[in-house]
Specification:
There is one protein chain. The protein is an alpha+beta fold and about 140 residues long. The protein folds into 2 domains: about 25-110, GMP Synthetase, Chain A, domain 3 (2-Layer Sandwich); about 115-145, no CATH class. Helices cover about 55% and strands about 10% of the residues. It has helices at about 1-15, 30-45, 50-55, 70-90, 120-130, 130-140, and strands at about 60, 65-70, 100-105. The protein has a 3-stranded mixed sheet. Strand 1 (about 60) and strand 2 (about 65-70) form a beta hairpin. It is elongated and about 80 Å long.
């Protein structure tokens, strides 16, 4: 029984003495590979909101990943998923240092004209669907009543 204990100690010492692989720097190619892996993982887990965020363009600047999101909903989801993303990249990519910079872009609805009255709404619909103008003329429709 004493001999078994010595063997266990020797095997544990050998494991401790083994060299630990060097941590690799994060490259764009490695990032793209890891992102495709995490996309596959999140598809299996049915994390559609995370997939919507991660499908945005990701750029690597040094050891920082530049991520752009649109609106506050994606920003909230991104802030919740960043720790999981960083952990996955460090573990699967054997990367020592990585961070995520989040850039929030506003939605592009500011350029569009907003319709408030029934007449304005109908005019916008006529621009989208030309057949409405013909229907209005043919049936004598009036939006103001």
């Amino acid at each position: 029984m004493l001999e078994i204990a010595k063997e266990d100690v020797i095997s544990k010492e050998e494991k401790v003495g083994e060299s630990i692989p060097e941590k690799a720097p994060l490259t764009q190619e490695l990032l793209n590979d890891l992102i495709s892996q995490i996309k596959t993982k999140w598809e299996r887990e049915e994390k559609s909101l995370e997939l919507a965020v991660i499908n945005q363009e990701l750029k690597l600047e040094g050891s920082a990943i530049q991520m752009s999101v649109v609106g506050h909903v994606q920003e909230e989801r991104a802030n919740k998923m960043i720790p999981e993303l960083i952990g996955f990249i460090k573990k699967e990519g054997n990367v020592a240092e990585v961070s995520v910079k989040l850039e929030v872009k506003e939605e592009q609805d500011k350029d569009k004209k907003k319709a408030f009255t029934d007449s304005e709404k109908f005019e916008l619909l006529k621009q989208k669907h030309g057949a409405l103008a013909e229907l209005q003329r043919k049936f004598g429709l009036d939006t103001d009543y």
